Amino acid sequence: MARPVLDVRDLTKVYGTGEATVHALAGVTMTVDRGDYVAIMGSSGSGKSTLMNILGALDVPTAGSYHLDGVDVSKLADRQLALARNRLIGFIFQAFNLIPRTTALANVELPLAYAGVKAKERRRRALAALDVVGLADRAKHEPNQLSGGQQQRVAVARALVTEPALLLADEPTGNLDSHSTADVLEVFDELSASGRTIVLITHEPEVGDRAKRLIRLVDGQIVEDIRQSAVDQMPVGAMTGRHTA
Amino acid sequence: MSLYEVIRFALRGLSANKLRSALTMLGILIGVAAVILLVAVGNGSAKAISDRIEALGTNTITVMSTGRGGTTSTALTVPIANALVDPQLAPDVASVSPVVTASSSTMTYEGTEHSVSSFVGTTPSWFAASNTPVGTGSAFTADDEAQGRRVVVIGQTVAEELFPGVDPIDKQVTVGGALFTIVGVLAEKSSTGFQDANDTAIAPLTAVREVLTGYGSLNSILVEATSPDKVDAVQSEVATILNQRLKVSATASTTSRTGGNSNTSSSTPYRIQNASQLLATQTETADTFTTLLGAVAAISLLVGGIGITNIMLVTVTERTREIGIRKALGAPRRVILTQFLIEATLLSVLGGALGVAAALIGSSFEIVGVKPVIVPSSIGLALGVSIAIGLFFGGLPASRAARLRPIDALRYE
Question: Which residue segment(s) compose the domain that B86 sits in?
């Protein structure tokens, strides 16, 4: 039996003390297997962003354990967290978060640069990643020369380039119009079809519908965990064929 | 992540806002150029002074009276000056020239007036002793002096003022109501300080006393030693004779101190100024002056450094989001720290290098009438300091950047 990519036990996150205590997460337990496509939904204040930050090794939990591909992330020191972010996780933000005044190619190369990969190898892998999202011809463009959907796809390429065990996306289509949303979701579908593990947060039902598994969070706890399609099958609504830009 | 890559990131960061980087570098440029140039000016001034003093000849001492005119028993007189020529008591004395000086005396020629800042009356031996060569014509002779003839040797400035384009030799000028004939023009001398060394006239002692200064005491006596290493010996020989002559009590000591005017104790009525010690004093003064200039310039360098800190803090704040992204992508703290530290250091090093270039160009011009002489060690020091400034003043902003928490940084507007 393959090791689960994500193994979270009793995850708790508490902010503040005394009267101002906020229980952002109140004991979340879940496992995500390789190749799964999970959508986490919840209203504002449900704790989904907090959960995402912890899963993305950007924050440490107050209690509980978090194993990512077998590595106990919750106990890592600062430097090792940075490594985990670089090698094990690919993060996609709602606001794209590309480095301004830098080409798409340079943006995608960045995680590889921090991983110590040499220039030529970096370039090759970055171009390959841009190809996966269908933007190889826009490699030299800067973010302000790309549409929202294209920027997000560059961000996806950047998340992929280190071949991480897990792709995390925080409201990836939140800032996009319907057309760009469709483009990005198509990319996700293809990635899932090729065996990538994806966990995303969303508040849009149409996005949640396309995932293989739907988890609902309320007040820092999981209230629903629905399997919409099997892990080893194509997700509902996935399209075959290459995406055209 | 190799250092080369980090430097590339840093360069990219700096070129993102070229105007800002240029202005910050300008601060360091000015500071470094100021330090190097001002130290060079101080150095050049010191050199000019010491050249001038050396040109005076380091084999003379000057005896001056400490009293104001004084009573006849303590004043310097011609007989006293003559007494210094004593083969037995003062064997190392080569020549003795008594000197009277009149300042700002008006010399007139055919309607043109000129105020000579220093009109000297002395004997012919003065010219050689004080290293004042005659350019055209000749100096006056001992016979002229004995006869009290009204002849005069003028300096270059006086010649230019009164005789533009004309040969002054054998012309007659009026000084103090008397007619003087010009027999020579001094060679040009370099000046330091505020006195123009060429604005002078030299005439026989007797003539000047008759016409200008009267028969009071001498202003000074210039004593020439047989060779430069005999100067200290001459000083003590002269002091002995003077003590006898001026009836100074035996307990008054004549101390000769190095590194200052060789002052006698305040109970002696005379003061001996040793040219080589004068040189030492002046050099010390000039060095202090140079250090002061350097310190002032260093303040401007400090301000330039503060400018770097300021700009780097602004830059870090501006790029908080970007730093958050980099950290989220896995940039270790050390790499972020190094990147911003290098950005700051690049600014200061480039500014410093340009400052050195600016100083080198500036040193080819005369500043405040002084020809700057660059001190090589000041260049190395300035460059080293500019690197240190980048590291030091860039350290605070860089560590700020490195310590940012990714989540907070990412949420920054």
Answer: 75-245
Each domain of chain A, given as residue ranges in start order, spans 6-98+148-153+163-227
pLDDT digit string (tens) for B180-218? 999 999 888 766 555 677 888 999 998 888 888 888 888
CA A132 from chain centre, in angstroms, equals 16
Q: State which residue of chain B sits closest to A97, comparing Cα positions.
A: B325
- CB pair distance less than 8 Å for B329 and A158: yes
Asked whether the beta carbons of B279 and B50 are under 8 A apart, the reply is yes
- Average pLDDT estimate for A122-144: 92
Q: What is the pTM of this model?
A: 0.66
Residues B341 and B390 in one domain: yes
Q: CA of B58: how far to CAs of A39, A50, A169, B70, B402, in Å?
A: 96, 86, 87, 29, 64
DSSP, residue by residue, B101-121 = EEEEEEEEETTEEEEEEEEEE
| Pair B241, B358 in one domain | no
Q: Is B362 exposed, middle or buried, given 0-12, 13-18 or 19+ CB atoms closer than 10 A? A: middle
d(CA A125, CA A162): 9
The DSSP code for A47 is S
* Contact at CB, A97 and B328, closer than 8 angstroms: yes
Closest CA to B244 of B261, B216, B269: B269
CATH class of A6-98+148-153+163-227: alpha beta
Specify the residue for token string 């508490």.
A14
pLDDT at A175 over 70: yes
How many DSSP H helices and E strands does chain A contain? 7, 10
Q: Which amino acid is at B4?
A: Y
In a domain, B274, yes or no: no
pLDDT band of residue A150 (cuts 50, 70, 90) is very high
Beta bridge partners of residue B179, listed in sequence order: B174
DSSP B157-190: HHHHHHSTTS--TT-EEEETTEEEEEEEEEPP--
Task: Name A72's bridge partners.
Answer: A67
pLDDT tens, residue by residue, A197-206? 999 999 888 8
Of A53, A102, A110, the CB nearest to B329: A110
Of B333, B335, B407, the CB nearest to A78: B333
Cα–Cα–Cα angle for B248, B250, B252, nearest 5°?
70
Query: A166-170 and A89-92 as β-strands: parallel, antiparallel, unpaired?
Result: parallel
Residue B272: left (phi > 0), alpha (psi -120 to 50), or beta? beta
Nearest neighbour of A99 by CB, restricted to B2, B322, B327: B322
- The structure tokens listed for B144 are 């002229």
What are the chain B neighbours of A76 within 8 Å (beta carbons)? none
Cα end-to-end distance, chain B, whole Å: 29
Alpha helices per DSSP H over chain A: 48-55, 78-87, 104-115, 119-132, 148-160, 178-193, 205-209
| Cβ-Cβ contacts under 8 Å for B371 (sequence gap 6 or more) | B44, B48
Other Cβ atoms less than 10 A from the Cβ of B231: the count is 22
User: Do the domain assignments include residue B70?
Assistant: no
A16 reaches B (C-beta below 8 A): no
Statement to judge: residues B368 and B403 lie in one domain: yes
Contacts of B103 (CB under 8 A, 6+ apart): B117, B118, B119
Please give the backbone phi and psi of residue A230, each rounded to the nearest 5 degrees, phi first.
-65, 155
A241: closest CA of chain B, how far (Å): 30
